[in-house]
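User: Second chain of the day. Same drill as before.
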Amino acid sequence: MIPSITLLVLLLIQLVALMLIYQQISKSTLFWKEIVGLFLVAFLTLSFMNYFFYLIIILYFYVIGIRHHLKNKKHLAAFYAIYSVTILSVIGNIVQLLIDKFFSTNIPITLLLQLAPFFMNTLMLHLFKTNFDFLVENYEQINKKILVNINALLFLLCTIQFIGYFFELRSQNIDRLNVMKTFAFFVIILILLFYLNMKTQLLQKEQLEKLKEMQLNDLTEYTAQIEALYGEIRSIRHDYVNIIASLKTGIEENDMAQVKEIYTDVLSEVKQSLQNQKYDLIQLRKIKIPAVKGILSAKLLAALQKEIVVNIEILNEVEESYFNTLDFIRILSIFLDNAIEAASISDQKQVTICLIQETNKQVIIINNSTRDTVIDKRKMFTKGYSTKGEQRGLGLAIVKDILGNYPNASLETEFQANHLTHTVVIQKKGATG
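Assistant: Same format as last time:
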């Protein structure tokens, strides 16, 4: 194998490693056209820009991120692009130092070690338990200045690294400086990963605290409503005793006019009172997950305050969630908020909530009336899309992102006769069918 071909294969393997790192952290699968484009861009820019081709590669991955799922998360798209190129450069340089010292004449091992940055990155992410998915799902809550500063630091490291390559070609006396610089950069990247991990853990803790506070408030409201309902039921029971006594008197005296009057005026009023939708709250006793019970009661009361007709059905007791509890709460909140808002401005003003617990499966059905006559189901889960105005179409996109983390979950959306229905089905982990 001649040196020029070896260099070509070397670059190809490095690009494969770069692509694997990007896909690993961004959870994006590149299309074949994007892969071919990456190779073409790399070879063309390397020919014209020498080692400064990294600028175009970063821009290329940034555009891919925007096109895939990060249109409204530009700082994160930049982070994935810069991090991928930087980690390949720094770890790749460490690998090259080892190759020069131990394997300089062994071409097969040299080529094989070009994939080392990908495996090293995998090990680092595992050791630091860095959760990039959490960054995507909670992008709106993340302080953007943190991402801007991290991106700037990574870009600076990457730039210094590639400038170093440029000067290495013109000097043979900077090996020691190169070693010190590369390992210093590697330590900085480790510190950044540790910092990111600490920040995500802190944000997770804050979210859990908010969830607990929300759960406590919702359950307090739920308890107060239940106590009020039981008080009304006791009052109705007392009224029934008096009504029966009045009926008995009318029957004994054969006063049918009195019996009809009691039935028409009094019993019908009591019947109407018992049919009040607030008594549907009692159905929530079948839910044994406090956080879920709390959010459903809060949304049900919010809907009733807007004079929306709410039907709630809970088939069998729900003792556990097959979703992470926080994810389940977010999914329910988003669907119900959208349903209540859409129903409140529709003619029928209806919302139906159905939870079905089966042996190894849970089904959540949310149906609501809407004033829309046509809905584009393909677009409604994309970021930024909304029939309610700009910057308000993020909820359903978040649901899609959450469900993307559950291969055992599915979502179906139907629109018919001015009614929108979302059906989420999740299988218990380890269950089939």
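The CA atoms of residues 63 and 268 lie 66 Å apart.

User: Great, on to the next one.
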